[in-house]
Amino acid sequence: MTNKTALVTGAGAGIGRACALRLAQDGIAIGVLDLNLESCQAVVAEIEAEGGKAIALQASIADRAQVTAAADTLRAAFGPITIVVNNAGISNFIPFEELTDDDWDIMFEINTKGTFIVTQVVLPDMKAASWGRIINISSSSAQTGSIEQVHYSASKGAVISMTRSLAQAVGPYGITVNNIPPGAVMNTIMSEANKHRFKMPMETLTKMIPVGRTGVPEDIANACAWLASEASSYVTGQTIGVNGGRVVS
C-alpha cells in the first residue's frame, strides 16, 4: 500500500485517530482531518514519530469549500487521494417528541450530507487511478434502532443505503465501497459523553455482548485497514459489523 494516500475524517480522536494510525502502519500517507486542528496535529505527530507520513487538515465535512480546500492541500502534499474513511459524525440522545427541525437537520447535515460531500470531492482521484477504497463508518444503532436516537439512527441508516448504491455505481472503476457499523466502542469521545444516557449499567451491557467486552477504537481500525487493502478487492457494498456479536447476520 506504499504510495497510497488516505483522507480520514474525524481523525483527531477516537475511532478516526485509530484508523489514521493503523493505515499509516501500512505505509499509507494520511490526511488527518478534523474540526479541531490541534488534535489533528497531535495525531500527525504520533504518525511521524513512527516513521509515517501525515498532514493535519481542518475542515467541517458539511462545508464543501472547506473539504475541497483540505483535499487540495492533501493532494499537494502526498498525491491523489484513493482511500477515504468517512468517520466524522455527531451523536446525541433526544426523545422523539422533543426533536426539533434543527435537531434533525444538523444530524443529517453532518452524518449524511458530510459523507456525501467528502466522497464526491475525492472520487475523481479514484476514477482516474482506476482504484479506490471508500470506507464509511455508520452505526449499529442504524441496524437495531436506539431509544432517543431516531434522528441519529436514521442518518446512519442513510449512510448504509448510500454505501450499497454507490458500490454498484463505482464498481466498474475499480472502486469498492463498504461500511463498518461499530457496536459499543466506549472509549471514544461520543460514547464517553453519552454514557450516562444508557438505560442499563455498563456492566450489564458488557454481559449482553457475546464476546464479553465493549469495543476499542483499534477494533474498528483493524477492519478499516483490511477494507483499504488489496485483500478486500472482491468485497463491496457490504456492511462489516464490528460489534462483538451485538448484531449478527
How would you summarize the topology of this molecule?
Blueprint: E1 5-9, H1 14-25, E2 29-34, H2 37-49, E3 54-58, H3 64-78, E4 83-86, H4 101-129, E5 132-137, H5 141-144, H6 150-170, E6 175-180, H7 189-194, H8 202-208, H9 217-227
Parallel strand pairs: 1-2, 1-4, 2-3, 4-5, 5-6
Helix pairs in contact: 1-9, 3-4, 4-6
Report the helical percentage: 40-55%
Shape: globular
**Overall average residue pLDDT:** 92
Q: Would you count the extended β strands for me?
A: 6
Helix tally equals: 9
- What would the CATH topology be? Rossmann fold
Spatial ordering of strands, largest sheet: 3-2-1-4-5-6
Q: Would you list the SSEs in sequence order as H and E?
A: EHEHEHEHEHHEHHH
Low-confidence stretches: none
What is the C-level CATH assignment?
A: Alpha Beta
Name of the CATH architecture: 3-Layer(aba) Sandwich
Quaternary state reads single chain
Count up the domains: 1
CATH superfamily: NAD(P)-binding Rossmann-like Domain
Main sheet attributes: strand count, strand direction, barrel closure: 6 strands, parallel
Radius of gyration (CA) equals: 17 Å
Structural class of the helices, strands and pairings? Answer: alpha/beta
Q: N-to-C terminal Cα separation, in Å?
A: 31 Å
Strand content: 5-15%
Characterise the protein shown here.
The protein has 249 residues and is an alpha/beta fold. It has a single domain (5-232), classed as NAD(P)-binding Rossmann-like Domain (Rossmann fold, 3-Layer(aba) Sandwich). The protein is 47% helix and 13% strand. The chain has a 6-stranded parallel sheet, sandwiched between helices. The longest helix has 29 residues, at 101-129. The chain is globular, with a radius of gyration of 17 Å.
